[in-house]
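Continuing the series of single-chain predictions for the mutant panel. This is the parent chain; the variants come on the following pages.
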Amino acid sequence: MHRWDWILLLGGTIPYLIGFVLVLQILLQRSPNLITRARISALIGALLHTVLLSLRAVNNEYLPVTSLFEFTLLFATLFMMVSLLVDLVRKMPIMTIASIPLSTLLLLSAILLATAPGEHSQKATTLWSVTHVLISLGAFGSFAFAFVGGILYLIEQQQLKGRPRAELIGMMPPLQTLHRLIRVSVALGIIFLTLGGVIGYLYARTTEIHSNAWRTDPKIVLTTITWAAYGILLFASTLPFFRGRRTAWAAIICFGFLVFTAWSTIFWSPFHNYL
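Parent structure:
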């Protein structure tokens, strides 16, 4: 990490922290008029991190997906950009409100990863490996939107059962829309994860990873379990007794396991450890 990398990384994280404070004010002090400021703060942070990722790509001559730090930073940036786009196109400010805290946590974890010793992995600079990582990024993003949908579903359902806050309910889509968001996001995530797994398998077969040891790699085993869990969730979400609250909780729990799987690469995975 060079000096300008740190300046852009920290400089882009500060607007997210400001946005996080604004989100707390919106929720706790019932100040929905602050949503525009939160949007602007998040957009400034995402743009600064886009500049950082672009500079790393140009200077190092590889796509910035060759370490868990770069993967986390790229994911947080794209996730925030897409959330802002959904907010703008679908008139859903709640997407920005829900996405800023998650993106902020991801960025703080990226800062911790940036302080870890080591260089980027040469394993992730080939066409096959970069394609594998980018498709996996799509899976992670899809499951993240399912997670956000689950959180929003539980909040709105709780609001409707008690004394609903008009300013909060007014920013929420219907429960049916959130349930559909969860199901569609999970379905897309499974497709991306399946494609990523197939490409990862082909990459392993065409490189120096010719032994069978990769098949018992902890990251691959945990990812397979995650894939199966999301598949069960997608099927169960069509059943009447599992619709709604249970689907929302399942999306939240599965995403927590997915995050654990991603971070497990640091400690256990010899083939996916990019630190």
